[in-house]
Amino acid sequence: MNGLFDELRIAIHSIWMRRWLALGVAWGVAVVGWLFVAQIPSSYESTARVFAQMQTILPAAVGITPADQQKDLDTVRQTLTSADNLEKVVRGTDLANTVATDKDVADRVAALQQAVKITSEQDNTFTISVAQRSPRIARQVVQKLLDLFVEQNLSGDKAETTSTLQFLDQQLAQKQKQLQDAETKREAFQNQFLGSLPGTGSIADRLAAARAQMSQVDSDLAAAQSSLAVVNGQMAGTPASVPGAAASAGSAGPARARLAAIQGQLADARARGYTEQHPDVVALKSQLAAAQAAARNEPLVGGTGAGAGASNPLYLQLKSNQADKQAQVAAALSRKRQLQGDIDAISAKLTGDSSQMQEQSQIERDYQVLKDSYDKLLSDREDVRLRGQAQSQTDQIKFSVLDQPSAPRVPTSPNRPLLLTGVLIAALAVGGGAAFAMTQVQTTFPTAKRLEAATGLTVIGSIGEAVTKAQIAQRRRQLGYFGGGAAALVVAWVALLGVEMLQRGLAA
């Protein structure tokens, strides 16, 4: 341990003997280092935090999902640092005072792309940070980016909605013209080839409708015939008159009862809105004419004799029901004959010229495709219009600035006080190292033991240094000069720190 302490004491003594060399080297290293630190530009960083609140109640109902909102928000965030936007930042801040040509603008834009950082935090919070040499410019750039961030999100959807609506309007106009042409062609074909056929639609559709009606008429005819058979059976077992009762003069017979029933059915059909050309009305009219003729030829049932029988009311009622059922059967038969004629006409058209049927099918398909496409475009346009209104009027994404752009007072880089202090320490270390290295180059023996170790001979004795008063006074002056030089180095370091603090105050 004593040997290590002796070595350390010898090293310190050797450096002290070459203290002027150490001081000179320290000054040189300090001056060079401080000049280098002074050349490093200061960088001030301004930050702002933005919160984007998603409105998902009404937008979700009109087709704007949270995923769509997040995608739009990410798009705005990613395009915020585009060249066009950063050019707006350059021309909208004090950076415009530093540009004169387009090349200068491009250089500033390129520098901003490296200086601007947009980081996404949790819960839709974003941090915008900008590093610049001037704290005022850094704050202006962040504020301009905030304005663009809000403006692009609000106007981007509006512009996209407007362009989409314009495109859909153009497509709707084209589809509408094509649909009108298809309708004209369809009507012309139907008037030329299908005007005389009953029903609507294609030949196959008309034939299917006629057959469906025929099936219904067959069912109604069977029911009417069954009811008529029941009435006929009841009439067969019911006498026409009741013996022993006085008949009232002028009683109506079966023909007149049937006439009254037909007139009632005709009045009921007209009350339902049937026209004079309706098959049921036409059948009832023909039956009415026959019933009127029969009623005119039928004598009134009358008599005053005591033994004469009176008309049976039940028989007359059954007779009226029979006439009613006969009318229903006749009407059903007439309707069946008409439908059979329609089916025959449609079948003849269907088997007569298959090319017309194929042409009509093609026309119908083309018309239906165009109509479906038009309806789909119309529905899409309404959805886009509603979505645009929801975006522009309900604030689907609402921005809140949590932290306004900060006004930096201390540069984020470099840490100049730390660098100045580091340079001072390094200068002192290099100065001391240079002095120590010089002791290693020059062969000297500060102690008797070092001489014995170097020569291998025994040192008999050593003589101490004799210093006169004049030498002492001179050494004291030299010590003062050295202390002044070392103190000047420290004072220079303190002065540089003061200048740095003053510059920070002026920059802020």
Uncertain stretches = 55-64, 244-250, 303-308
Principal-axes shape call: rod-shaped
Structural class of the helix and strand makeup? alpha+beta
Distance between termini? 56 Å
Number of strands: 6
Q: Record the strand order, biggest sheet.
A: 2-3-1-6
Mean pLDDT: 74
Strand content: 5-15%
Number of helices: 15
For the biggest sheet, the summary is: 4 strands, antiparallel
* Rg for CA atoms: 58 Å
Order of helices and strands: HHEHHHHEEHHEHHEHHEHHH
Helix content: over 70%
Question: Can you describe this structure?
Answer:
The chain is of the alpha+beta class. It is 71% helix and 7% strand. It has 15 helices and 6 strands. It has helices spanning 2-17, 19-39, 58-61, 66-79, 83-91, 102-115, 135-193, 203-236, 254-271, 279-297, 313-352, 354-393, 416-441, 448-455, 469-507; strands spanning 44-54, 116-120, 125-132, 241-242, 310-311, 397-403. Strands 2-3-1-6 form a 4-stranded antiparallel beta sheet. A two-stranded antiparallel ribbon has the order 4-5. β2 and β3 (125-132) form a beta hairpin. α1 packs across α13, α9 crosses α11 (313-352) and α13 packs antiparallel against α15. The longest helix is centred in the first third of the chain and has 59 residues, at 135-193. Mean pLDDT is 74; it is low at 55-64, 244-250 and 303-308.
